[in-house]
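Q: Sequence in, structure out?
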Amino acid sequence: YVLLAIDTDSQMNLSFDLGNGIASELVGPTVFSIGADEKYIVVMQHPYDRSSITHYFIVERTSSSKFEDRKKGVQGPLTKEEFENLSASLSLPTFTKTFDDLK
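A: Exactly. Output:
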């Protein structure tokens, strides 16, 4: 799992590193906050160029090297209320890294 922003920070996304310099997007731009533990990655995202909307994503970590398996582990976009309900039942990690200039 990698955070990528190819040309500008506003293109920040969560991707799966396929190796050899190739990555496939799991959660699209603009990712602005993230947290992780050994089981989950949590993501806050604004749809690209729409910073007034915030979506939440839960990514279940897997050791599979297949992109399709990684993509199946992505839940979202979720509302804040949906995320908070799942957070309590799944014991999700807290957000530990926020890019304030993207928030």
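Strands lie at 2-4, 13-19, 22-27, 31-36, 40-45, 55-60, 74-78, 97-98.
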